[in-house]
């Protein structure tokens, strides 16, 4: 599903960062952020939909794709390991 909504992610043992969710499927998520993440890195994510009738998505994910996307921006692809 193509979308564009705010989200946050937490690097384990680290701080909370913001991003923009772009694509969501049953097994993965694509988003854009200013953080250069590492392949294989495990994150906790929370995607907040634009409409209050849909609950936020919270999951533990693993980074499977990192691509530059403009100056100091990265397009990240993750696979969902488990829902929280």
Fold blueprint:
Layout: E1 2-11, E2 16-24, E3 28-33, E4 42-47, E5 57-68, E6 74-83
Antiparallel strand pairs: 1-2, 1-4, 2-3, 3-6, 4-5, 5-6
Short key terms for the protein model shown above:
single chain, 84 residues, Thrombin, subunit H, 6-stranded antiparallel barrel
Can you describe this structure?
- The chain is mainly β and 84 residues long.
- The chain has a single domain (2-83), classed as Thrombin, subunit H, CATH 2.40.10.220.
- 0% of the residues lie in helices and 63% in strands.
- The protein has no helices and 6 strands.
- The chain has strands at residues 2-11, 16-24, 28-33, 42-47, 57-68, 74-83.
- A 6-stranded antiparallel beta barrel has the order 1-2-3-6-5-4.
- Strand 1 (2-11) and strand 2 form a beta hairpin.
- It starts with a strand and ends with a strand.
- The model has no long low-confidence stretch (mean pLDDT 91).
């Amino acid at each position: 599903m193509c979308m564009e909504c705010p989200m946050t992610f937490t690097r384990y043992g680290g701080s909370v960062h913001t991003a923009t969710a772009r694509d969501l499927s049953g097994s993965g998520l694509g988003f854009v952020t200013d953080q250069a993440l590492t392949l294989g890195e495990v994150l906790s994510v929370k995607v907040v939909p634009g409409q209050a009738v849909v609950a936020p998505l919270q999951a533990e994910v693993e980074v499977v794709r990192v691509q530059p996307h403009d100056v100091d921006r990265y397009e990240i692809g993750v696979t969902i390991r488990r829902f929280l």
